[in-house]
Amino acid sequence: METGVTVLIGLFFMVAVYLMLSKQLVRILLGIAILGNAVNMLIFTNGRLTREIPPLIPAHLYTPETATANPLPQALVLTAIVISFSFFAFLLVLAFRAYQELGTDEVNKMRVAEPENDQTPPQGY
């Protein structure tokens, strides 16, 4: 099962990078959201995908009797989901405001601070 999930994670990373290289702002935002999901799946997969019992320790013991699920990746992914959702919501509002002010969602047309007929900076030396 971990092999299939690993291939799916790689596919998510591929799609996210492809979308983030786009010129439309909405596609860039979707790429960021998919990248966050891919990272969450990667962290969760690193914690091993096994069916174990919950990590509850009886009162008379100091350590669990049998193998238990690792709660650390689950807690990290839960925190990362909240953070990535709030980051996506902030970027969505920022992109909407930029669209309202500039009238376009293409990033090359959003260059308001640069003169239109100015030379571009050198790309290399």
What do you see in this structure?
This protein is mainly α. The chain has three helices and no strands. It has helices at residues 2-20, 25-46, 71-102. Helix 1 (2-20) packs antiparallel against helix 2 (25-46) and helix 2 packs antiparallel against helix 3 (71-102). The relative contact order is 0.13. The model has no long low-confidence stretch (mean pLDDT 87).
Q: Output mean pLDDT.
A: 87
Hey, roughly how much beta strand do the residues contain?
A: under 5%
The residue ranges in which pLDDT falls below 50 over 5 or more consecutive positions are: none
Sheet with the most strands, sense and barrel status: none
Cα(first) to Cα(last) distance is 49 Å
The protein's oligomeric status is single chain
Give the ordered list of helices and strands. Answer: HHH
What percentage of residues falls in helices of 4 or more residues? Answer: 55-70%
The chain-level structural class is mainly alpha
Tell me the overall shape.
elongated
Q: Could you tell me the radius of gyration in angstroms?
A: 22 Å
DSSP summary, beta strand count: 0
Helix count, DSSP H or I runs of 4 or more residues = 3
